[in-house]
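User: Batch of two.

Assistant: Item 1 of 2:
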Amino acid sequence: MFTVEEVSIKNEKQVNYIIQFLKKFNLEYENDIDYTIAVYDKDKLIGTASKHQNVLKCFAVNEDYQGLGIVNTLVKTIEDQMFKQGIYHFFIYTICCNKEKFQSLGYSEIISAHNITLLEHGIHQINSYLNNLKIKYNISQNPKACIIMNANPFTLGHRYLIERASRENDEVIVFVVSEDQSKFPFSVRFHLVSIGVKDLTNVKVIETGPYLISNATFPTYFLKQKTDVVELQTKLDCEIFLKYYKEIFNINVRYVGNEPYCEVTNTYNQVMSDLLPKNGICVKVINRIEVNKQIISASKVRENLENHNFEQLRLLVPDVTYNYLINNEWC
């Protein structure tokens, strides 16, 4: 009889036991994990799995116990934990040769690329989700340009990029990153962008949903550090964009601002500029605008906000953002 136990992620001894077990499978125990379980045969650790938010990860089962339903136990136990947390949409990464194990548990393949498969399960399925977005925002079938931005918060630099796309294309979609991993929550970022471009009649602002530049498809995006994972995750993100967003929204041009500071974002731009044109999407990299010989960026806005430098802040953001920052006392 096997037993399932929750691992205290604050207990260094318990976590180290899991770390050593995962090393046998060439897996690492990632720093962002918020929940871990272990399966034991008496006192012997025979399996483990973890999660971060709605992403299941770090699955490993002793080879002598494979085929005994332990993966099913791990998945269902973590899903139950997510249900308790009000999470009803799940992602799993696995190597391609293992995807059938999770498909047998109800998970659907989103994409397989570079020997990695991303699957999902729960209240969303990517095709229906994106088609519903298309209906919700009355997106046409016409060819169009797009911009994907976090807008943390919305700056004059973002506005300039959108204006440029608006002038050069009949229709533009601005996707605002849905995931709440930023100083400003999605609802605020989405509102500021929407109000900030409402005069541009050929621009529609919609959410990315959980599939682009998200914890599921691009977890290193928010870490702001260069790792070997960055390029792989960027490619996966681009593959999802090409397979689903390009086709459903009929996108043929993508605009990005050049990135002189952040290595992760710069890597993303480089990979995108290489991959997307090969698949029918023109990538236009636009030089960022400057104020007082400094490039406008959201990080500069946040820095001035924290330092109470309102005079400089006023030069970096449109009225809608400035009024919001002042009235809501984010400083």
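Item 2 of 2:
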Amino acid sequence: MAINYNGDISVVLDMQHRTPGNLRAFVQATLRSIRTGKSSDVRFSSTEKIEPVPMITTKMEFSYKDGKDFVFTNPENYETVTLSAELVGDDKNYLVENAPVTVTFVEDKAVSIELPSNVILTVTDAPEGVRGDSANNVQKAIIMETGITVQAPLFIKTGEKIKIDTRTGKYMERA
């Protein structure tokens, strides 16, 4: 959710409702300013009013990396949006060409991206498993096309496509 706080539009990253012992209830929130990009912890009392700001989500596709920035395209009208590496964060490890993402906008400014729950990536480097090393569920470190390292079973070979959970970064199955 996005709110208007102290004359600045901020995105709510985290929120907790607390009711300590004999004190009044309050809401502890972590806000990130859209204008400055800085995060802050704010405490709201139960009597304070906040003004929500409408957020618009759009389905987009990852197009290419431009230096440190990432370019996304709307497949309906082919408009492009360039997002900074700080905004994309660790999600860059799962972005391949034409990967679908959901981009959230507040007042025509992109504030966050959301990946699908899993992605299919190609294995670029998978060392051979050691024979006789299969007493139980043994895994090996493999490198994906985006550069991320994932633990996968011994039978995975270079060039195969596998499905990876984007929330945990773990191997799911062959694709």
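The chain has a mean pLDDT of 82.
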